[in-house]
Amino acid sequence: MNVFTAGTSGPIVVAGAGYAGLHVTLRLTAKLRNNPMMELTLVDRHDYHQALTELPRVAGGTRAADAVRIPLQDLLAKRVRFVQAEISGFDLAGRRVHTGAGPIGWSRLVLALGSRPNDFAIPGLAQRSLSLYSASDAERVWAAVNRALDDAAAADPERQQRLATVVVGGGGATGVELAGELAEMLPEEASRHGLAPDRPAVWLVEAGPTILAGSSSQLIDKASRILSDLGVQVRTNAVIAAATEEGFRLKDGQLVEGGVFVWAGGVKAPELVADSGLPTGHNGRVKVDRYLRVLDHPDIYVAGDLASVVDPRSGHVLPPLAQVALEEGETVARNLDAELDGRQLEAFTFHDKGFVVSVGTRRGVADIAGITSGGQLAHLLKDAIEWEYRQSVRYLRGWDPVAR
Ligand SMILES: Cc1cc2nc3c(=O)[nH]c(=O)nc-3n(C[C@H](O)[C@H](O)[C@H](O)COP(=O)(O)OP(=O)(O)OC[C@H]3O[C@@H](n4cnc5c(N)ncnc54)[C@H](O)[C@@H]3O)c2cc1C
After folding, report:
1. What is the mean pLDDT of residues 187-202?
2. Residues with Cβ within 6 A of ligand 1?
3. What string of H, E and C letters represents the secondary structure of 238-300?
4. How much is the average pLDDT of 296-311?
């Protein structure tokens, strides 16, 4: 019995064209050729896919925002129906997604809506700081830095120091990449604004005892050394209690002042999922079975940041990473394929390929197969991973040329 003979007519609908959703769509495209009845619909608010792992470069002014927006029309086969619309909710019993373009019925739904910044209800944080979760966000960060440098150039020395300081909240991979990128670019940018190259400063404020929490101590040491070499001032055990006009107020009463504030302190599930009636766990992520189907909703799969998947080896929920999203997308595509062919579903297993973080525009750190490296090689590795990803979306598009 497959999804059609089971009496569950209607398309397979993929909600979200990010890392997970796009992967599922591209992988299933070849099935369209042998299944003339099959409909595959992809829904996203944007008509482009965003390479989010490259955002720190856009925020640091080294890459154009349009370079990380990949038009979906260049990637999708003609038989894939793409609907550009905002998804506003789900009718679980009626099997329909509510969108700005009207309701869309599903026989199988893949939820891949990613996540959004989590401000942990810290007072003032959402209003006072910028976030970094889209190409437009990243453009806003770089524009704000430039405005602050302009203002600093016209200010007295004391204000100048404050205005030319960028404060990044959250010392995870995103915060480290952003702080490194800015620290490398700001001296030159300051000169362009008529300021001394050593005038700008970058602060990285982390609530926990270390940056890059969960990584090996060697990796953390190497990253800390590069950040220090770039002049980034790292504050750990610094819990932000409130964000005010003057800056981040820490729990111990200290004020971290700056001209630009960026929050990279964590993510949570999109709001519409909280009101959907789907079973949710930590940070609002959706609970799934080992085949990545929503508990008690076998017609709905979840992949990427939105899925709450426990790694049986560590007992922890897998982190919100592109690598995880792609692997989950692969399993979802295989399981939909299995359903169409009436085969057994396969359980999801995460194969960790390692961890790579760029620190500045030339160096980075990496933990791969138990070996830690730091320096230019790790940065080249990060470049290679991003290049390979861009190739893969184009390669998968050409996976079955006859279906185009
Ligand atoms: C700055 C930054 C740097 C990162 N660097 C790395 C890295 O180096 N390595 C790594 O492994 N991971 C990295 N990540 C994490 C990685 O980007 C995410 O884990 C990954 O994007 C998750 O994929 P996803 O498909 O679940 O969601 P996303 O890629 O976020 O895609 C979600 C899609 O859903 C769409 N969508 C959401 N809500 C709606 C709605 N209501 N209506 C219509 N469409 C909607 C969005 O437009 C988007 O296209 C980084 C993240 C950020 C923000």
Report:
1. 95
2. 16-21, 44-46, 52-53, 55-56, 86-87, 112-114, 132-133, 173-174, 270, 272, 304-306, 320-323, 325
3. CCEEEECCCEEEECCCCEEECCEEEECCCEECCHHHHCCCCCECHHHCEEECCCCEECCEEEE
4. 96
